[in-house]
Write a structure and sequence with these properties.
The complex is a heterodimer of chains A (about 300) and B (about 170).
Chain A lengths: L1 H21 L4 H33 L1 H39 L10 E9 L7 E4 L12 E3 L5 E8 L4 E5 L6 E9 L26 E11 L3 E8 L9 E4 L11 E10 L5 E8 L8 E5 L11
Antiparallel strand pairs in A: 1-2, 1-12, 2-5, 3-4, 3-12, 4-5, 6-7, 6-9, 7-8, 8-11, 9-10, 10-11
Chain B lengths: L2 H17 L13 H12 L2 H17 L7 H6 L1 H9 L8 H25 L6 H17 L1 H20 L9
Helix pairs in contact in B: 1-3, 2-3, 2-5, 2-6, 2-8, 3-5, 5-6, 6-7
The chains are: A alpha+beta (about 300), B mainly alpha (about 170).
């Protein structure tokens, strides 16, 4: 009987707190508790990170060596690509200047923040940072890694601290695009002799097509692309970028790379797993994009 | 144990949970030290101590989390009920009942958390939640000894101060 009475009391207290918290009535208390605990959390994080790296290094030395070799090869390939891109970028800028084209993101204004904690809930993927409303943060703002890839959005902002909902959180959904090399989905029928003459195929590579979709967070798989057309030629290594649709994210921010595509027989759709460009389990510093105001579209 | 000490221990565990514990991923989930501590304390020291220890731990956890405050206090509450049930056990052991309470408590914690998150407008898919909660049952049960033995030692010392020296119970 005592246990039942106690459960009723605790249930009432908890439900009242949940309702009050949902109405943001407890934000000052949560801000205060993060103020008190953040130095300790930061110190323990700083201490445990190198220990974890060291232990992982011992456990997976062979894998690290192999990965290092692969990364060196990748670096060389990317340096060559970068040299070509710089040249192309210069030409694009010159042409944009000549045509007076409005640039997408002329000057990004970024605010750096330190990660102070990881969310305790196993049902969420979120981190706490040491910047809040007092620093100009607002809910919905886009958060990037130090290298500029997408990490998530500000989900809850207190006066001095904020929670960032990562792109791997099950509630996260980002309008994305994948650049694919187009290829015919079905064999082209042979022209009949009576048909009008067709233009002969050229030797140029197939044109690049852009597939627009939703990159959704997933507690187990990180980020997934669902409802892909079954004939979409998505392959491991394809880059996934923000599409800018919906107005909640700027266009062209790197989300990650496709690692595998899953095709089910007789299903009209397939899905793909995406590895985020940034290691979301090991973030120290993040950048909040202050200059981009999300549209925060609501409704259907 | 005084409420202030529970508050300190709860805060310390929450800090560990938010900083170092996420690096320990087994089956894709990290052990929940606060839940294991709450279950160990409720079994070792009796569910009547759990009456006040568990709400303090729950609210402490919520203040350092992005969940609505009260979520953990409510989700941890069934541990008291489970601890009361295992009191009726036939075996003279505290460790096995603790592990059972941890496992069952993890399942109920997950179910209640998902329900609260969904009720407060957060779209946590039940299937995704299940894929996290089910491994967490095993992981938390496996990590129980790490928290249980210090709690048992601490609990025995507290009892000895009250009753005088002498063996109270076997840890296993």
């Amino acid at each position: 009987m005592r246990v039942i009475s106690w459960l009723i009391v605790v249930g009432f207290m908890s439900v009242s707190s949940i309702a009050l918290s949902h109405q943001r009535g407890l934000d000052p208390v949560q801000n205060l508790s993060l103020t008190v605990t953040s130095p300790l959390t930061g110190a323990v994080r700083d201490l445990s990170e190198p220990i974890n790296d060291y232990l992982l290094g011992i456990a997976d030395r062979g894998g690290l060596k192999r990965e290092n070799q692969e990364l060196r090869a990748e670096l060389e390939r990317l340096q060559v690509l970068l040299a070509k891109q710089q040249n192309a970028q210069q030409r694009v800028t010159e042409l944009e200047d000549a045509l007076g084209v409005k640039q997408n993101r002329p000057e990004d204004r970024l605010l750096a923040a330190d990660v102070i904690a990881t969310d305790l809930s196993a049902l969420k993927r979120a981190i706490a940072i040491d910047r809040g409303r007092g620093d100009g943060l607002d809910e919905g703002m886009v958060v990037l890694s130090r290298n500029g890839s997408l990490i998530g959005t500000v989900s809850r902002a207190y006066q001095d601290y904020a929670w960032i909902q990562l792109i791997t959180d099950p509630e996260s959904a980002v309008n994305a695009q994948v650049h694919l090399n187009a290829a015919p989905s079905s064999p082209t029928p042979a022209p009949s002799p009576a048909a009008s003459p067709q233009p002969s195929p050229s030797n140029t590579p197939p044109p690049e097509t852009v597939l627009r979709l939703i990159a959704a967070g997933d507690l187990r798989d990180g980020v997934t692309l669902a409802l892909l057309p079954s004939d979409a030629r998505i392959e491991p290594g394809n880059l996934v970028l923000t599409s800018g649709h919906g107005g909640n994210y700027p266009r062209g921010i790197l989300i990650g790379t496709v690692t595998s595509a899953e095709e089910r027989p007789q299903s009209p759709f397939k899905s793909a797993k995406v590895e985020p460009a940034s290691d979301l389990s090991n973030l120290d510093t993040v950048l909040i994009l202050l200059s981009f105001q999300p549209a925060r579209l609501s409704g259907p | 144990m005084k409420p202030s000490i529970v508050l300190v221990v709860g805060t310390f565990l929450a800090v560990l949970q938010a900083s170092a514990v996420p690096y320990i991923q087994v089956l894709g989930v990290a052990p929940d030290l606060i839940l294991i501590f709450a279950a160990s304390w409720a079994v070792v020291r009796g569910y009547d101590e759990g009456f006040w220890v568990i709400p303090i731990l729950g609210f402490t956890r919520d203040f350092i989390s992005s969940d609505p405050v009260g979520t953990s206090a409510l989700a941890l509450a069934p541990i008291v009920l489970l601890a009361a049930v295992v009191r009726l056990r036939a075996m003279d052991s505290e460790f096995v009942p603790t592990a059972i309470v941890v496992a069952a408590g993890t399942l109920l914690y997950g179910i209640i958390s998902i329900a609260i998150l969904r009720a407060t407008g957060q779209d946590t898919p039940v299937t995704d939640g299940a894929l996290v909660v089910l491994p967490a049952i095993i992981v938390n049960a496996v990590f129980t000894p790490i928290v249980y033995f210090p709690v048992h030692w601490l609990g025995s010392r507290t009892t000895m101060r009250i009753l005088g020296p002498g063996r109270i119970s076997m840890p296993l």
